[in-house]
Amino acid sequence: MKKIALIFSTILLGMLFMACSKVAFEKQAPLENAALVYVYVVPDSGINMTTRVSTYKVGVNGKKTEGSMKVGEYQVLNLKPGMLTISAYRADLEEQKIEMDLAAGKTYYLQIHSFADDFGKFEIKRVNSNVAYEELSNTTLAGEYVKEENIISELIMPKEEPSAVVAPQVVYTKSKTEELQNAAALKTQGILTDAEFTKLKAEILAK
Fold first, then answer.
1. Could you tell me if 45 and 113 are in contact, meaning their C-beta atoms sit under 8 angstroms apart?
2. CA–CA separation, 192 vs 190, rounded Å?
3. pLDDT tens digits, residue range 161-205?
4. CA torsion 169→174→176→182, rounded to 10°?
5. Which of 40, 62, 52, 204 is nearest to 138 (CA)?
């Protein structure tokens, strides 16, 4: 009996630990110059329910994110504004996708839903905030999803550094008067002969 009680206690503690390790849904604001996208999985619908546990991955413009989601889990992505294709992959084989034109500062909600009565088909669709908040309140955050060796550039929102302004170089040019004065000084010092001075003077004046 003691052995059975010990096993039961271990299982119970493990379940409690797993429950505590889950991060409940928390509303976020988009990062600067980003669009915020929640993607979450709701339970299958239909009467022919199965014991199948489907896992889903999210993709952005054809690149899959790291990690996966199950029913009752969500991911949140800060994406660059503009036209993007967001995909849902089931078991890394089946794909459903949606085209979205994202705007900076806006929040979007994508629901992944499977139909048990229709040969297990599934879809990813956009839903409004009221529906999404009610469903997301019962979800937890899926694991990390940024894959370092497969960087999804749409996820990266670096602040753009101001481009370096190169100051124009000021080139100092001697005036003809200064050049003539220098030439005369060289003649006075005996460095230039009269002929050389005359020639140099003519060259300076001809510029």
1. yes
2. 5
3. 565 555 555 545 667 788 888 888 888 888 888 888 888 888 888
4. -160
5. 40
